[in-house]
Design a protein that fits this description.
The complex is a heterodimer of chains A (about 325) and B (about 375). In chain A, about 30% of the residues lie in helices and about 20% in strands. Chain A has about 325 residues and is an alpha/beta fold. A nine-stranded mixed sheet of chain A has the order 2-3-4-1-6-7-8-9-10, with helices on both faces. In chain A, strand 6, helix 5 and strand 7 form a beta-alpha-beta unit. In chain B, the strands form three sheets. In chain B, strands 6, 7, 8, 9, 10, 11, 12 and 13 form an eight-stranded mixed sheet that branches. In chain B, helix 7 crosses helix 8 and helix 8 runs parallel beside helix 9. Chain B is globular, with a radius of gyration of 23 Å. The chains are: A alpha/beta (about 325), B alpha/beta (about 375). Bound molecules: guanosine-5'-triphosphate (2 copies) and magnesium ion (MG) (2 copies).
Chain lengths: ~325, ~375
């Protein structure tokens, strides 16, 4: 491997229980399973493989990883990928560190960070994977312990919505508008204020003024709606951004006002292809581990792929690196 | 390498305003606020690089060592007058003063407005949420409102606390980006929305002396005043309550006539809690502007509005309901409209230049938007 190889860093953030560690583990595992499964090809595992082993171990046993506390695992891999079959592969080293979601609320409350260097690294990364887990969007982060179990699942209320009801046209290159609510619709409590604060902080470290869009391609954000398999099927048939527009349009608005349209992409990701808490699925998973990614292609159609690396490819290379799959 | 200790870049205590010209939150413990242990000093070595923060701190170290904490650069809470003043040096922030007696529904109106904006329900408000320096402040209000289950005896958002007059929390902040200018628009408009206790407004209306003026010093640069009037109370208490609101309008008129509010463009009356109102209001929006179509109870208020209009100010009346029911039971009514009308004046096609045309003031070379929170020290 040449020493001048490109270093690519991807920041990974999200609230507690949002599926970060599971995704990271499933990604490493799918790279190991080879090009049939994953578009990132393994070239150099680096000096210390113990983090990779620790990450994937629970999944291979058919279990979810423990909540991230204390030790935060870090992947650092030499990889290659082809943007299209005709192109020669790009080689790079990918670094992604796990994040403890509990820190998010602390950051929001205290408005200070403890490990500044890490934050600087995140701010200077090529891009960000931002995790939200739809089946665990709590009304408010601080109150989540009180949330009755029945309230946690964010099911669309009333009649089943189609993308047209959502005010979402077929043209992808525009920012969607939220559905107009009727007088009796409940007022949704925004759950993403802490995430917005966190991105504001990353922007400030990059010395971006509010509303200032960084040069196109310099910092991409992949919004990962995790545990997509647990989302009601009516939502899964729609573009992932439609889900977010209904449940957290503040975040979509914030991203639209601060980034180029092409620099933000919305994914529905099922790292484990189903719930490992269900015995039959855990068994299936142990035999043939894998997950899937849903996204909208250029025509606005929802596409499903078994390549868990797509969010990474988007962040590193832009949407030309994903829409090939149509 | 020699370590030069510089002045503190921030304070780890969220309630401290000392570095922004206010008070040390632990003044009782530290006679000399510079000795307060919550202050964060950046250590700079000779070449100016920040000294590395040792090994990666483990989770347990993290909470213990507040000395390593780096502030985000803003407090997330309401901006104090001093902070907003500094913000206005780097950006021509639009200032909307939300006025009215205590319990009028000011904070409720602001909260419901933010919720509508956050949920994409922004009819005739062609702006997207783009940023906020007071997200924590917004969330505190929202948490309160979300807790409220409809008990009439309980408050929805809580009485706005009367802080220390010199450095009290004054403004909620929003950064907006105009929707029609997408996808290539780059404009970011800062909006300051006052959220102050009604007592201050009552006291100042009663006596416009220096001490009462102090916490409302921002009135000198407000561009739109929204006077929130509790319509339910008006109905229950009658003319005496109407008179109290008229006095506020009269006070605004005298300030304007004396040239003390040079940027003021419009005064809007917002009738709040209209879910409780029994009186028949003019049915058509257009009729709201005609005094004859109102019940006598409102005449006094409308007369004062007409007076303001004669002096060249835009005026209007909005009928709103922020929390006629708990959040889970339905949408607020017309809470976005007054803000939409204000933005139309301040940023719409017919906008007049911001009075005494805004000029960025000289700020240091490494000036940033966040200049105001670490004056002179551009480092995060
Ligand atoms: N059904 C399903 N559940 C998932 C999936 N990924 C994650 N989960 C669930 O989400 C939980 C949390 O996932 P983690 O990966 O530990 O979340 P995290 O973001 O690392 O959380 P912290 O470490 O607390 O910051 C898991 O225990 C699973 O219950 C998925 O693909 N499908
Ligand atoms: N029925 C009804 N009650 C409301 C509405 N808005 C506010 N209230 C009630 O009025 C109370 C006071 O509202 P606030 O928003 O706190 O009033 P304020 O003007 O900010 O008061 P101060 O902070 O004391 O100056 C709330 O606690 C509610 O009980 C509304 O739209 N409908
Ligand atoms: Mg984790
Ligand atoms: Mg209040």
């Amino acid at each position: 491997m040449s020493p001048s190889i490109d270093q690519r860093t991807v920041a990974l953030l999200g609230g507690p229980d949002s599926g970060k560690t599971t995704f990271l583990a499933a990604l490493v595992d799918s790279i190991q399973q080879g090009p049939e499964r994953c578009s990132l090809e393994f070239e150099d595992e680096g000096e210390d493989v113990s983090p990779h082993r620790k990450l994937t171990e629970p999944l291979l046993l058919g279990k979810y990883p423990q909540r991230t506390k204390g030790e935060r695992l870090h992947i650092d891999l030499g990889l290659s990928t082809r943007l299209s079959p005709a192109k020669s592969p790009s080689h790079f080293r990918l670094q992604i560190g796990d994040y403890n979601g509990e820190e998010l609320e602390r950051l929001f409350r205290r408005l200070s960070v403890d490990n500044f260097e890490e934050w600087e690294q995140r701010a200077n990364a090529q891009g960000l994977l931002l995790f939200l887990r739809p089946d665990a969007i709590y009304p408010l982060v601080a109150k989540k312990r009180d949330a009755p179990a029945g309230e946690q699942l964010a099911v669309p209320g009333g009649p089943v919505l189609t993308p047209a009801d959502m005010g979402i046209g077929s043209v992808v290159a525009e920012v969607p508008e939220a559905r107009k609510l009727t007088a009796d619709d409940p007022v949704r409590v925004p759950t993403v204020l802490a995430l917005v604060e966190l991105i504001q902080y990353l922007r400030r470290l990059r010395r971006l003024l509010p509303g200032e869009r960084p040069p196109q391609g310099s910092f991409r954000i992949a919004i990962v709606l995790s545990a997509w398999d647990a989302v009601p099927a009516t939502w899964r048939q729609q573009r992932p951004v439609a889900y977010l527009m209904e449940h957290a349009s503040l975040l979509v608005d914030f991203l639209a006002s601060n980034y180029h349209l092409d620099d933000v992409f919305y994914f529905g990701v099922s790292s484990t292809g189903g719930d490992l808490g269900v015995t039959s699925h855990a068994k299936r998973y142990r035999d043939d581990p894998g997950g899937y990614v849903c996204y909208a292609n250029h025509a606005g159609r929802v596409v499903q792929s078994s390549d868990l690396a797509l969010p990474i490819r988007f962040v590193l290379f832009g949407d030309e690196a994903i829409v090939r799959e149509t | 390498m020699a370590i030069i200790q510089r002045k503190p870049s921030s304070c780890g205590n969220a309630h401290c305003t000392f570095l922004h010209g206010g008070r040390c939150a632990r003044a009782a413990e530290f006679a000399d606020p510079w000795k307060c242990t919550d202050l964060v000093f950046d250590q700079i070595d000779e070449v100016g690089a920040e000294s590395s923060a040792n090994a990666e701190p483990s989770d347990s170290m993290v909470t213990a060592s507040s000395a390593q904490r780096i502030d985000l650069g803003w407090r997330g809470r309401h901006l104090t007058f001093q902070e907003s003043d500094l913000l206005r040096r780097s950006t021509p922030a639009r200032t909307i003063a939300v006025l009215g007696d205590t319990n009028a529904g000011k904070s409720s109106l602001l909260t419901a407005f933010f919720l509508q904006l956050a949920n994409g329900q922004r009819e005739r408000f062609p702006y997207r949420f783009a940023s906020s320096l007071t997200l924590y402040g917004w969330r505190t209000l929202i948490e309160h409102a979300a807790d409220w289950q409809g008990d009439k005896k309980e408050s929805v958002v809580g009485h706005t606390p009367k802080g220390d007059k010199e450095s009290a929390d004054t403004f909620l902040h929003l950064g907006l980006s105009p929707v029609e200018e997408e996808p290539c628009g780059h404009r970011h408009i800062d909006v300051l929305l006052s959220d102050v206790p009604g007592e201050w407004i009552r006291e100042y209306t009663e006596r416009a002396n220096e001490s009462n003026r102090q916490p409302l010093a921002f009135l000198t640069y407000m561009q739109v005043a929204l006077l929130v009037i509790d319509a339910d109370r008006l109905e229950r208490e009658g003319q005496i309550a109407a008179a109290a609101s008229s006095f506020i309008l009269q006070r605004l008129l005298s300030l304007y006539n004396q040239g003390q509010t040079p940027q003021l463009r419009a005064v809007f009356v917002v009738l709040s809690k209209c879910d409780k109102l029994k009186a028949e209001l003019p049915p058509q929006a257009a009729d709201l502007r005609k005094a004859e179509s109102w019940p006598p109870l409102f005449r006094r208020i409308l007369a004062q509005l007409a007076n303001l209009q004669k002096r060249g100010l835009a005026t209007d009346v909005f009928v709103t309901s922020a929390f006629g029911q708990p959040l889970s039971k339905g949408q607020p009514k017309s809470v976005v409209q007054p803000f939409g009308a204000a933005m139309e004046l301040l940023d719409g096609p017919t906008k007049m230049p911001l009075a005494p045309s805004w000029q960025p003031q000289a700020i240091p070379a490494d000036a940033s938007y966040f200049y105001f929170l670490h004056a002179g020290d551009g480092k995060p």
